[in-house]
């Protein structure tokens, strides 16, 4: 191995991070600059694209300042970033709009409903690889078309967040395959922009940038960007990818028998597949090495535990105290079952789903309810695992877990036992940064292929095995969870028909999202 470094840039929802990564996947240094998420109304979530660039410049300068000689060792720059944020850029390179709707912006929800009312999912799914969702850039562009037509008329190209940073570094414009795959505008067979989806959505093809692969060189650091950042002019900048695909790569989830679970605000379970899994309840993202990641998202993952802390602990309970109480309850929580659909389901007929406790008796206490919440999230994710396996025909051997939920050993043991397979936790928590580093190493020829690079760069701190005495209990409870969830569907519809003050619940625009990307 040489002394070469990759400069990894992660354009996150909460901050911009810049890191130096060596060819063994070791994060030599990392620094961050926070930025604001702007919420101007219910369902709105925006950021200023200029803040991303300013944060990137500051973070890069800091990481270089703290490591003299770094610019000479940085052979490649690789950016990843939050996905689906729709940046509009004019022909002169200026921003058309100061703020950008993010992945969790729900302003296009009514457009999604109108689209699905007009187009049966089985009609368009083969052309889009994904069911309709307000997250996708296609619907954000429809919103601009309908509400700010002058902005869309001025648009020369649409970019994603990391593409904008790349543009400011190099002056070059492209969208990578992983981002395009989640645009709702790509043809999964040709991997190019879909004339069918452009026709169905009524969007202009001219504003879409060329689709390139993450490992391609987009351009080089310009003299202007070098002066601002401290990087050497001419340093190659790769096309890069979304943060979610970068994290899959950086956690070692690259083969069809390995699944990834991101244990954050939500719980995202992803299965690698050679082709997208076309199912109305499954989303598909391109992977950094050109495969597909079929994923399902449980909106309330870690958020369900935070809800439990707030409600059961009167808002004062700590993370550790909640877990300690849950750990004192028996596995199976004495038959108490929690369905964790606090903000509904992401797709399909269950978008208006509700959470509930089922099976309660006078024997249950607060500790049982806390454990039921942890187990309910695991049952919900396991339901998704079985759907992914049924759609793909694959059998998942183990799951790689990342995110804040991996700090809870009790929850990992519960999940491994519910899933009936081991869970591995990467030693390096910054999986997206490691993924960028792997791409940089591959581009320089440090490894012959992705599999070799992953073996060299990804290590695991722990492997959590199922607890044998818990498995029979959870195996018996899972079908009860499934039947309770299914049987409640007619009641959700009836609740929705009630006056809002009587319990109609959360407006669709107020639903929470997880930081996926």
Beta-strand content estimate:
15-25%
Which word captures the global form?
Answer: globular
- Uncertain runs are 504-517
Helix content: 25-40%
Number of continuous helical runs: 19
Distance between the termini: 31 Å
The structural class is alpha+beta
Average pLDDT taken over every residue: 93
- Widest sheet, order of strands: 18-19-17-16-22-23-24
What does the largest sheet look like? 7 strands, mixed
Structural write-up:
With 517 residues, the chain is an alpha+beta fold. 39% of the residues lie in helices and 20% in strands. Helix 1 crosses helix 7, helix 11 (243-250) crosses helix 16 and helix 14 (366-392) crosses helix 18. It is globular and about 70 Å long. Mean pLDDT is 93; it is low at 504-517.
Write the layout of secondary structure elements.
Blueprint: E1 5-11, E2 15-22, E3 27-34, E4 46-48, H1 49-65, H2 70-73, E5 74-81, E6 87-89, E7 99-101, H3 109-118, H4 121-128, H5 137-147, H6 149-154, E8 157-159, H7 161-170, E9 175-176, H8 177-180, E10 186-187, E11 192-193, H9 195-201, E12 211-212, E13 217-220, H10 223-229, E14 236-238, E15 241-242, H11 243-250, E16 258-263, E17 267-273, E18 283-286, E19 292-298, H12 302-312, H13 319-328, E20 337-339, E21 356-358, H14 366-392, E22 398-402, H15 409-419, E23 423-426, H16 431-443, H17 450-457, E24 460-464, H18 468-487, H19 489-496
Helix pairs in contact: 1-7, 11-16, 12-14, 13-14, 14-15, 14-18, 16-17
